[in-house]
Amino acid sequence: MHQQLNEIMNATPEVKGFHAHVYYDPENPQSREAAAKIREALATQFEVQLGRWHDRPIGPHSQAMYQVVFSLDQFAQVVPWLMLHRQGLDILIHPETGNDLADHTNHALWLGEKLALRLEVLQP
Fold this sequence. Notes:
Blueprint: H1 2-10, E1 18-23, H2 29-45, E2 49-50, E3 65-70, H3 75-85, E4 91-95, H4 100-104, E5 109-111
Antiparallel strand pairs: 1-3, 1-4, 2-3, 4-5
């Protein structure tokens, strides 16, 4: 039993960092404004990298969004903050392990509704 557990633990991929994808409706001024407030607060309160605004679907993301990149040691601060300040927006949080498909599905954490992703974009 211990050997099986050790094999599973040793097979765990290395997490290099995290992404949060903040989804919004570009046609809804309140949704866009909520996303802007979250973005501004993240920029002032945390050392994160903010991606560009994408008002159209891009990559596996079927809705407008922007990306937030943060490090392993920021997870315990950034994620609870997002939980409490998401202003009704849906947010995907996932690790960076090098396996984009698994990171966006099996390894993903959703705040709000779990949105459909265009997974075919991530297929090898």
